[in-house]
Write a structure and sequence with these properties.
The complex is a heterodimer of chains A (about 130) and B (about 160).
Chain A lengths: L7 H5 L2 E7 L2 E6 L14 H22 L4 E12 L8 E10 L3 E9 L8 E11 L3
Antiparallel strand pairs in A: 1-2, 2-4, 3-6, 4-5, 5-6
Chain B lengths: L9 H6 L6 H8 L3 H6 L2 E5 L3 E6 L6 E3 L4 E2 L1 H20 L5 E10 L9 E10 L3 E9 L8 E9 L2 H4 L2
Antiparallel strand pairs in B: 1-2, 2-6, 3-4, 5-8, 6-7, 7-8
Classes of the chains: A alpha+beta (about 130), B alpha+beta (about 160).
């Protein structure tokens, strides 16, 4: 995945790029009926999907900056749900804590109208390996 | 206030708590919204566990080069299955929200195969339910993902909008 491309799942859910902050792309998504979990709120899995996309984008951008073309595979994700996701635009942005040769660690936050009141906080680990040629 | 003569919305019926039937719940509550988009379906359940699944689809792919599913739908399936395992264990619906959910991706899901999640509520406290789950694509001994999470019981008024 390039830092400027979204996969089919992300496009189907209506995710899009909404600018870059300190080198990390911001992923945004409007609320829709296909994002609904319990009636009137975002599904936790959808919030997870947006967090994960922001993590991928942040890591891809960081690797591009370093001039590295590596395969990125998710190892695990842990999400704390801090507030209910209300039917408004949702944003997420990741920050690469460390990108080594084999593993990268990324922290991600999701928010809505108020940046200081995050909806979810998350960490994600990735395995990095040379691309098969 | 609750009016016993009024025709009941399925949500009201579940909240008023006339037992919890996982198959019935899946048919009504997973038909719309994100679960409906993924095409989540009921497979099986026991005293403390439940199994849900959805089919592989092109628009759920995370890596177009390989056709491997995105992990968002895997999180959603495990979130739903672990959540329902709590009500399966207690035998009634109680409003709850995900406090945290951790998922380990043990291998990529095979493109084209349905994804199945088996989830269990292994411990219950007054306000917290502890859950775990496994997602696989046909062989539970060769899982795609493992989940561990906690659900927090909340006031019914906060649950629906």
């Amino acid at each position: 995945m390039k830092s400027t491309e979204l996969p089919p799942y992300a496009r189907a859910m209506g995710m899009e790029f909404a600018g870059i902050e300190n080198g990390s792309p911001v992923i945004a998504m409007d609320y829709s009926s296909r994002a609904m979990g319990r009636p009137g709120f975002f599904h936790g899995g959808v919030i997870g999907g947006v967090l994960e996309m922001a993590a991928f984008a942040a890591l891809a951008a960081e690797l591009e900056r370093q001039g590295l073309d590596l395969r990125i595979k998710p190892i695990n994700i842990s999400t704390e749900y801090l507030r209910a996701g209300v039917p408004e635009r949702l944003f997420a942005r990741g920050e690469v804590v460390r990108a080594g040769r084999r593993v990268a660690n990324v922290r991600i936050e999701a928010w809505q109208s108020d940046r200081d009141r995050p909806v979810a906080s998350c960490w994600m680990n990735f395995q990095l390996s040379p691309k098969k040629t | 206030m609750h009016n016993p003569d009024a025709p009941q919305d399925p949500i009201d019926r579940f909240i008023s708590g006339a037992g919890f039937n996982p198959r019935d719940w899946t048919a009504h509550m997973n038909a719309n919204g994100h679960s409906g988009f993924l095409g989540m379906r009921y497979c099986d359940h026991g005293d403390t566990w439940i199994e849900l699944a959805f089919d592989w689809r092109e628009d759920l792919v995370g890596d177009p080069e390989t056709g491997v599913l995105a992990s968002g739908p895997i999180i959603s399936l495990l979130d739903n299955a672990t959540s329902m395992s709590v009500w399966t264990r207690t035998g009634k619906f109680t409003p709850q929200v995900t406090l945290d959910l951790r998922i380990d991706y043990t291998r990529a899901a095979t493109p084209g195969k349905p994804l199945i999640a088996r989830a269990e509520c292994y411990q219950l406290r007054r306000s917290m339910a502890f859950v775990r789950g496994i997602a696989h694509d046909g062989d539970i001994t060769d899982p795609v993902a493992h989940a561990a999470g906690i659900f927090m019981q909340i006031d019914g008024q906060e649950w629906v909008k």
